[in-house]
Amino acid sequence: MANTLHEFLMPELGVRGAIVEFDSGVEDMLGARPYPPDVRRLLAHSLAAMALLSANTKFEGRMSLQFQGKRALKMLVAQIDAGLQVRAMAKADADASGDFAELMHGGLLGLLLEPERGEQNYQATVAIEGHSLASALEAYYERSEQIPSRLLLASDGGRIRGIVLQRLPLGEKNSSVDHWDHVCALFGTLGEPELAAVDAETLLRRLFHEEALRVYEPRPVNLMCRCSRKSIAVMLLSLGEDELNEHLAEHAQVDVTCEFCGREYQFTRADVDELFLAARMQPDSLTRH
Asked: What is the full DSSP assignment across 18-76?
């Protein structure tokens, strides 16, 4: 089944929204490492959140949700690029458990935007509050972007789902406080189990069957790591020839494992020698990535 992002508009109520569905590739992305169940659930929600954050926006570039902590959950990173390729990874103790607030207690959560065309990066702090990533992102939108929003994120085995609703500026396309309260009341009838089990078309029909909906053409969104042998080669070049030679003096090869997807790369001494020879002959050939 396809992974898709469905964007929609309620033109008579001044509300826009999106639903993301991941039905394939979940195990490839999250199953490469033995994540504890609660950490895997948070990672799944982060993947859905990144797709929803990119919906209904003209931003072109890479968007990252980044967390650093000192307790059971040490790190979490989720990213989406302009091509709607999403990936996520975490570092956590084997016994890490708890809900969003417990796992992230005492850490720092932030949102990083990296434009494609040389503009300055933008970074904002996302307050760790509430008991879900969805509620924290709702508060972020309300405070930082002044966009009232509702989110719900869900995962069930190999499926990941998410939905977001956002009120347009007051007065735009019939936007009003009363209309927003009405839509939020309908949204409040939806729970995670139903979101995880039902396809987007059915869900929209159930929630908003009495409302005028404009549903746009679904866009493909992919769970896909951007790692490659070339990108790993660039990283090795940045370490320098001396450091790699020291490593190869004690080991038969250089082993690199992608933190996101778990894919393993091996570089023998002959491979490393060839990398630096090519770099000396054509300085730009391997450094552009």
From this structure: EEEEE-SSHHHHHTTS---HHHHHHHHHHHHHHHHHHTT----EEEEEEEE-SSSEEEE
Determine the pLDDT at residue 287.
45
The residue type of 149 is: S
Cβ proximity of 257 and 273 under 8 Å: no
41/35 Cα distance (integer angstroms): 9
Give the tens place of pLDDT for each residue, 157-167.
Answer: 889 999 999 99
Beta bridge partners of 89: 77
Q: Express each pLDDT in 134-172 by its tens digit.
A: 999 999 999 988 899 999 999 998 899 999 999 999 988
Considering the four listed CATH numbers 3.90.1280.10, 3.40.710.10, 2.60.120.280, 3.40.50.150, the one that applies to the domain covering 229-281 is 3.90.1280.10
d(CA 215, CA 202): 13
Please give the pLDDT value at position 283.
Answer: 58
Q: How many residues does the chain have?
A: 289
Instruction: Determine if the pTM surpasses 0.90.
Output: no
Query: Looking at domain 4-223, which of 3.30.465.10, 3.40.50.11710, 3.40.50.720, 3.55.30.10 is its CATH number?
Result: 3.55.30.10
